[in-house]
Specification:
The protein is built from four helices and eight strands. The chain is of the alpha+beta class and about 180 residues long.
Length: about 180
Amino acid sequence: MKIKASCVYDYDAIKTVQRLNMYRKANPKYRLTMSLGLIALLFFILLAECIAFGFVPLLVILLVCDIFFCALLLYLYFLAPKIQIKTLNKRGKYENFYEFCEENVLLKYTSTCGSDNGETVIKYTDITKIRETKRYLLLSVGKFVYIVDKSTVSSEEMKALSGFLKGITDKYTVIDY
C-alpha cells in the first residue's frame, strides 16, 4: 500500500482542529447553539431574580460570570481560529505531504519561509488517536495533530486507508459534520 495525500494549513483546517478540540465527538455548531441557549436561559432567570429580589451582589456576580462564559465560548468558536491562522500566515504558507506505507507514514512538511522545511517518519504505533470528518483526517501523535485533506486522495484510496487505519488503532472516530 502506498497512498499519497497532502494538506495546506488554511483557515478551514485550523478551524476543524480547533472545534474538534472544543467539542470532541459532537457537531460543534449544534453544541455551541445548545450551550448559548442554556446560557441565555440562565441569564434571563438571573435577571428575573435580580428584578424580583433586587440587585443582590451574588446575583450580579452570577450575571457577570454568565456574560463572561458566553463571550468566552464565542471567542473560542469564531475568533481563536482566525487568530491562529493569522499567526501561522505571518510565518509563511505551510503544507504537508503524506505518503502512507505499510509500516509508517512519511511526512514532508514545507513552508514558504524556508526555515520550517523537512521530513519525518511517523510510525503507526505512535499514532494515539485518529479522527475523521467529512473533509479531513486528523492524526494525533502526542500533542501534535497532523491534518490530511481527504480531497487530495481518491475515494477508493480513502476507503482503503481508513480501513487500514481502523485496524491499527481502536481510537478511530468518525465525526459527521
